[in-house]
């Protein structure tokens, strides 16, 4: 019998805001106002349901109708609402620009690192204001994404015959503007493979909150570095994402089924231990 009852939070990105897009039938809704926590109001209501007998909860990152800008998303309230709902894992989807010739439009990538270029966001729970996050915690960002949960996403893709690229660095920019050509080329030189506006601080906060976070990124455009291709525009991002959303939902559902088959006790405890040993106030 597992010590930790696992539950999966699914954060739907651009084009995946509507719970009806997910193949699971949600049983109940925690209204947005009821999901308010000490960090504020999450982006949407929480839709709870099951996939293969495992409890899942869906949160829409940009809210119904995609009204919340990447800068205005309350990432702390979102992550805290999933923690308070009992989530042990988070699977996130994200639309990204490709910074690499080898990542084409529509391709799925399971990222393994990030470069944080955001500047206007609260990126830690450990700011001394919360009793739930006491002390000063310097959480290590290697690994940034949980490798075991990421591997489950890769296995799920293999199981349903969906090609995915394993590994990749996401550059997270503040937005809402897209990058200049000079910036885009600089990010390529830095080793970025993908570019978006939301992975940071979401992945950071999930780790601070002790949840195992992995993402599936879908390349929707080539940003603006590639001479042979039109410059990114927001409408195209949504069109390409919507065209591929079926692949993403299939992958998420299959991944939940695989997550349910494993015992995560040691892995969850080891993340909690990382947080403890890196909290300098507890020494
Ligand atoms: N999201 C999707 N495409 C993007 C791009 N090119 N830059 C930033 N965020 C994005």
Automatic annotation (TrEMBL):
State where substrate binds. Answer: 197, 221-223
Q: Which GO terms describe its cellular component?
A: cytosol; nucleus
Broadest EC class assigned to this enzyme = transferase
Q: Where is the Nucleoside phosphorylase domain?
A: 7-256
Q: In which pathway does it act?
A: Amino-acid biosynthesis; L-methionine biosynthesis via salvage pathway; S-methyl-5-thio-alpha-D-ribose 1-phosphate from S-methyl-5'-thioadenosine (phosphorylase route): step 1/1
Q: Where in the cell is it found?
A: Cytoplasm; Nucleus
Question: Pfam families under this entry?
Answer: PNP_UDP_1
Q: Which EC number(s) are documented for this chain?
A: 2.4.2.28
Quote one Gene Ontology molecular function term: S-methyl-5-thioadenosine phosphorylase activity
- Pinpoint the site Important for substrate specificity: 179, 234
- Which UniProt keywords are listed? Cytoplasm, Glycosyltransferase, Nucleus, Purine salvage, Transferase
Membrane-spanning residues: none
Using the UniProt record, give the first listed, main subcellular location: cytoplasm
**One annotated GO biological process:** purine ribonucleoside salvage
Could you say which residues bind phosphate here?
A: 14, 61-62, 94-95, 198
Q: Which reaction does it catalyse?
A: S-methyl-5'-thioadenosine + phosphate = 5-(methylsulfanyl)-alpha-D-ribose 1-phosphate + adenine
**What is the purpose of this protein?**
Catalyzes the reversible phosphorylation of S-methyl-5'-thioadenosine (MTA) to adenine and 5-methylthioribose-1-phosphate. Involved in the breakdown of MTA, a major by-product of polyamine biosynthesis. Responsible for the first step in the methionine salvage pathway after MTA has been generated from S-adenosylmethionine. Has broad substrate specificity with 6-aminopurine nucleosides as preferred substrates.
Q: How the protein assembles, per its UniProt entry?
A: Homotrimer.
**Into which family does the record put it?**
Belongs to the PNP/MTAP phosphorylase family. MTAP subfamily.
What protein name applies here?
S-methyl-5'-thioadenosine phosphorylase
Q: Which organism is it from?
A: Trichomalopsis sarcophagae
Lineage, highest ranks first: Eukaryota, Metazoa, Ecdysozoa, Arthropoda, Hexapoda
């Amino acid at each position: 019998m597992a010590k930790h009852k696992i539950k999966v939070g699914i954060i739907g990105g651009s084009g995946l805001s509507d719970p009806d897009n997910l193949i699971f039938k949600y049983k109940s809704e925690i209204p947005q106002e009821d999901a308010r926590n000490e960090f504020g109001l999450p982006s949407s209501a929480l839709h709870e349901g099951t996939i293969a007998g495992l409890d899942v909860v869906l949160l829409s990152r940009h809210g119904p109708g995609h009204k919340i800008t990447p800068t205005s998303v309350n990432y702390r309230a979102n992550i805290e609402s999933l923690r308070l709902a009992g989530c042990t894992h988070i699977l996130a989807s994200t639309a990204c620009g490709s910074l690499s010739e080898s990542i084409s439009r529509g391709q799925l990538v399971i990222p393994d690192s990030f470069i944080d270029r955001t500047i206007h966001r609260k990126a830690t729970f450990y700011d001394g204001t919360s009793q739930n996050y006491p002390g000063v915690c310097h959480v290590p960002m290697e690994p940034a994404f949980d490798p075991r949960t990421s591997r489950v996403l890769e296995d799920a893709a293999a199981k349903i015959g969906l090609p995915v690229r394993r590994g990749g660095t996401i550059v997270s920019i503040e937005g809402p503007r897209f990058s200049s050509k000079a910036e885009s080329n600089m990010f390529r030189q830095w080793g970025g493979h993908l570019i978006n506006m939301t992975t940071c601080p979401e992945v950071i906060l999930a780790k601070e909150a002790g949840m195992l976070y992995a993402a599936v990124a879908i390349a929707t455009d080539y940003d603006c570095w590639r001479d042979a291709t039109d410059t990114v525009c927001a409408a195209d991002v949504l069109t390409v994402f919507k065209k591929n959303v079926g692949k993403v939902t299939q992958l998420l559902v299959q991944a939940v089924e695989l997550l349910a088959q494993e015992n995560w006790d040691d892995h969850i405890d080891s993340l909690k231990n990382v947080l403890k040993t890196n909290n300098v106030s507890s020494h």
